Structures are given as structure tokens and as C-alpha cells.
Amino acid sequence: MKEVLAWFTNPPSDGPKSTIVLRLMAGGVFLWEGILKFVYANQGIGRFTKLGMPLPHFTADFVACLEIAGGLLVFSGWLTRLIAVPFVFEMIVAILSTKISLYLGTSPLPLPPAPPRVGMWAVLHEVRSEYAQV
User: What is the pLDDT, as a whole number, of residue 13?
Assistant: First the structure.
């Protein structure tokens, strides 16, 4: 168990410098998506309500805070492996809660503005952000 904890809390610091660019990109996306959930109700509470999430006010605020704090952690390179675990779960929930109904054409969210609007190709097109974040 100590080895696992050490792996999460003590990553190597001799990686390639390009890691910084990836960290800035991924951390930035989580950071601004978290902020958007507070700034625009349709991205936070409204979206979580439409998706049928339990306790949408609490859930939206929790996810927004997680994304802001976690985005800053990834951005700074501090505890990135630890915050990656909840981020992976968050992205899996996001994909399952939005893309299955898009595939079936029953999404409570607005459909994409241009074809493909439903089905596998629509899902593959719309999942690009979540896929990249995982």
C-alpha cells in the first residue's frame, strides 16, 4: 500500500519538458469548464437538472469546485496523479450521462447544430472533449 501511495504522491520530476504543455492544456480545460458551471446556469445547475442528476444544485457546485481546484492542481503540476483519479471517474460519468441518450436520439440536451445529430457519428464527434480529458 505504501508503494501505491508513493506512486501517487511522488511522481518523477525528470520527464520531458513537453509535459508542461499537456498539463497547461488539460488543467486549463478543467479550470474554465468549472468556472463556466458557476457563471452560466445552463452549463451547471440547468444542465445537471436536464440530465436527471440527483441533487443538481449540490452536484453541479461540487463538480464545478472539483474542476476548478483540480484544474489548478494539474495546471501547477502538483498532485496531478491524485486528482487524475476523480477526473477519470467524472469524465466517464459525463460520457455515460450524455452520449447514450445522444446515440439513441433521446437527449434532453440540445442536439448538435449540424449533422450528424444522433447516432454513433454524432457521439464520436461530440465526445471528443471528454475523450481527450480522460
Answer: 79
Expressed in angstroms, the distance from the first to the final Cα of the chain is: 25
Distance CA 62, CA 57 (A): 9
What is the chain's alpha carbon radius of gyration, rounded to the nearest angstrom?
17
Domain-by-domain residue ranges, the chain?
18-133
| Prior bond of 16 cis (ω within 30°) | no
pTM of the predicted model, to two decimals?
0.89
Q: Is the dihedral of CA 106, 57, 88, 40 positive or negative?
A: positive
Map grid coordinates 436536464 to a residue. Answer: 50
Residues 109-122 have pLDDT tens digits of 998 888 999 999 99
